[in-house]
Structure prediction request, 79 residues.
Amino acid sequence: MTRTLATAGIILALPLLFSVQAEAKGCIKGAAVGAVAGHYAHHHAVLGAIGGCIVGRHLANEKAREDAERAQHQPAPHH
Prediction:
């Protein structure tokens, strides 16, 4: 129970490490998934949360870049 609460506290504190909202967005989702996966893989929830945060941030930044490129290539709407 104590380990679960500590893990939950770490997961909830991870977004505070990042000041940019887009980075925190990917980090929260990745950390949650990583913590669950890490817990079931030999009780390494904290390591899973950290890894998930890193991967989540990478994927969110990649998606934001693709969205920005797509928006640049679309023609402007006519009024």
Summary: The two ends are 60 Å apart (CA to CA). Residues 20-72 form one domain. Helices lie at 2-13, 21-40, 45-73. The chain has a mean pLDDT of 78.
